[in-house]
Design a protein that fits this description.
Its main location: periplasm. Homodimer. The chain has eight helices and 40 strands. With about 650 residues, the chain is mainly beta. A hairpin with a 5-residue loop joins strand 13 and strand 14. The radius of gyration is 28 Å and the shape is globular. It binds (dicuprio-$l^{3}-sulfanyl)-sulfanyl-copper (RUQ), dinuclear copper ion (CUA) and calcium ion. The site of calcium ion has 9 residues, from loops.
């Protein structure tokens, strides 16, 4: 569809225009604030003139939040109590959100370029992202889904978080001291890389009580290997469950499975990892993917898989050097040696989540109105030969409502499941659900349901999948916002809502619009992170430590230009190069003061990036246009920021 050029001043008469005219007329008559909303404004008025004199809010009658979690509004001078680490979906990066305010504090680029920070432009970021032999980026798109943070002793240790790229099967790691991506790893032989989850301790070595692995699920089945020869041979299609070393970010091993993976969970004892499977049919088309009544949650016995690799029981796929173990169920029937076991769950389940008491995994039903609660000790009992049927590890299947997608927890025995089709969150009690499943018909596990706006997907409560789950705030990511915000054209923002879950009933506290389309997130108390706000010059091998060391060095056509920044000037303020040169420009910000970031841009050369205090970045580019090019500071740093510039003089 192409849009016809249109004079925006000429208004057509679409439905509703009559009402707008009426409202305008009403406002002109000075009765606007009552008539506009159709009722008296009931929300507590702000004291300033802006709110008192402005238009009434569209949802003027919304009840004020009064739960025990505290106020949502963070007045100037106060800080949010929690960090939210958010995945940005097909924007391809990650975000840091202040909770409870919902304010976006930072975008953390990883898979796609970002002109603010120079991600994808500087040599350092390109080395993390990966380049083709000609130096251009290997990928310029990304689709981030799942965000998880590193653990120690069952709670977040504030060191790292990870995020996946569904499109190109990459996993990125962020350092949480500087909030920057430091590694990206490509998973071999994987398409539709979806869920991730770090382990919470080692399955064998009790001294390793922190994250050393990240497990990764493959959603789309592809030929193994995918080299163009077995395009139609379904026997050759498969999916892999991948283990990445959390510290080196190398791929440790992969497990070939039946069906597919979707989301991933890990147990608190490190022994089990699991993925929900919606395509046991191994079908290519959705109608067929729904043909079975039950699919599965597939459990991996991590120690046995790693023992098999030590014993040399693995193969390779295509050119990949990664060891691949056979975790197809038909080859893992004997409980004593099996590396996997399948627990059957109803029709096309979605999220799998670990309860903070360490006892259960909960699969959300999606096409079944239920959640399935799986007792992890019983799964281990099956592996030990003490339980004859793995499905006996199912201890509850509460009916929660239509379209269950993801589940979170409050640390007080309750679970909260998003209902995509009902546009609700259902709070339910795990032990009551277990009692009911065991035959006690008198208990009702459903505690409360609340409307959210609209079609929720992801959900997470503060510290929910840690041993310190505290049940204070719960964020819900709504895929549709419809009428919640000012219209901004056909693309609606999405709606992150914050709920207070300190009481028996959930209370909807806050809406905030988000640019599409956020996915998964985790929320942790602010004192669990220890951000550094100034870099250390010594961490940068290329740093120019003094202004005296700046200037141009020439080696044939290869030219190195060393520049420093100290507000409000670069040193040097000009340099000469020639057409045909290959310039590597290294910029060190010698300013030590917190918040004193400088930018650096060169017209016509596609160069733009920032340097934070005591940071060094470099760019390499070919000189192909003669003339004078003013490089200048892009980040407002000083009263003389506009004067902060210099000349790149290019001789023909
Ligand atoms: S998974 S709703 Cu549910 Cu990637 Cu996002
Ligand atoms: Cu330096 Cu603006
Ligand atoms: Ca299915």
């Amino acid at each position: 569809m192409s849009l016809k050029a249109q004079d925006p001043h000429i208004e057509k008469e679409p439905a509703g225009i009559g009402r707008r005219r009426f409202l305008n007329a009403a406002a002109a008559l000075g009765i606007g604030s009552v008539t506009l909303a159709g009722c008296k404004e009931e929300s507590k008025p702000a004291q300033g003139g802006a709110a008192a004199g402005g238009a009434a809010p569209a949802h003027g009658a919304e009840a004020p939040h009064q739960g025990g979690a505290g106020p949502v509004h963070i007045p100037p001078g106060q800080l949010d109590t929690h960090y939210g680490l958010w995945s940005s979906g097909h924007t391809g990066d990650a975000r840091v959100i202040g909770i409870p305010s919902g304010r976006e504090l930072l975008r953390m680029p990883c898979f796609v370029p970002d002109p603010l920070t120079g991600w994808g432009i500087t040599n350092e970021s390109k080395a993390v992202m990966g380049t083709k032999p000609d130096g251009t980026l290997e990928y310029v798109v990304g689709d981030t889904h799942h965000m998880q943070a590193s653990y120690k002793d069952g709670i977040y240790d504030g060191k790292y978080c990870w995020i996946n790229d569904k499109i190109n099967a990459r996993i990125a790691r962020f350092r949480l001291d500087y909030f920057v991506c430091d590694k990206i790893t490509k998973l071999p032989n994987v398409q539709g890389f979806h869920g991730i989850f770090p382990d919470k301790r080692d399955p064998v070595d009790p001294a390793i009580n922190y994250t050393t692995r990240v497990f990764c699920g493959q959603e789309f089945r592809i030929p193994m290997p995918n080299h163009g020869k077995d395009l139609e041979d379904t026997e050759k299609y498969g999916a892999l469950f991948t283990c990445v070393d959390a510290l080196t970010m190398d791929v440790k091993w992969q497990a070939r499975i039946n069906g597919n993976c979707d989301l991933v969970a890990t147990s608190f004892d490190g022994k089990l990892a699991a993925t929900n499977q919606y395509n046991l049919e191994e079908a290519d088309f959705y109608a067929e993917m729904m043909s079975r009544e039950r699919d599965a949650c597939l459990f991996f016995h991590v120690a046995r898989i790693e023992q098999a690799i030590k014993d040399g029981k693995f193969t390779h796929i295509g050119d990949s050097k990664v060891p691949v173990v056979d975790c197809r169920v038909e080859n893992n029937k004997d409980p004593k040696s099996a590396m996997v076991v399948r627990v059957s769950v109803p029709k096309n389940p979605h999220g799998v989540n670990a309860s903070p008491d360490g006892k259960y995994f909960v699969c959300s039903g999606k096409l079944s109105p239920t959640c399935t609660v799986i007792d992890l000790q019983k799964v281990l009992d099956w592996f030990d030969g003490k339980l004859d049927d793995p499905d006996k590890s199912i201890v509850a299947e509460p009916e929660v409502g239509l379209g269950p997608l993801h589940t979170t927890f409050d640390g007080r025995g309750n679970a909260y499941t998003t209902l995509f089709l009902d546009s609700q969150v259902c709070k339910w009690n795990i032990e009551k659900a277990i009692k009911k499943y065991a035959g006690d018909k008198t208990v009702n596990p459903i505690v409360h349901k609340i409307d959210v706006m609209y079609q929720p997907g992801h959900i997470n409560a503060t510290c929910a999948e840690t041993k310190a789950a505290d049940g204070i705030w719960m964020a819900v990511g709504n895929k549709f916002s419809k009428d919640r915000f000012l219209p901004v054209g056909p693309l609606h923002p999405e709606n992150d809502q914050l709920l207070d879950i300190t009481g028996e009933q959930m209370i909807l506290a806050h809406d905030n619009a988000v640019r599409p389309e956020p996915h998964d997130f985790v929320i942790l108390p602010r004192d669990w992170l220890h951000p550094k706000q100034v870099y250390n010059l010594d961490d940068f091998p290329l740093a120019t430590k003094s202004q005296a060391d700046t200037g141009v060095t020439r080696n044939g056509k290869k030219v190195t230009v060393r520049i420093t920044s100290v507000a409000p000037a670069y040193e040097p303020t000009e340099f000469n190069v020639k057409v045909g040169d290959e310039v590597t420009l290294i910029l060190t910000n010698l300013d030590k003061v917190e918040d004193l970031t400088h930018g650096f841009a060169i017209p016509e050369y596609n160069i733009q990036f920032i340097v934070n205090p005591q940071e060094t970045k470099s760019v390499t580019f070919k000189i192909d246009k003669p003339g004078v090019f003013w490089y200048y500071c892009t980040n407002f740093c000083h009263a003389l920021h506009l004067e902060m510039r210099g000349r790149m003089i290019v001789e023909p």
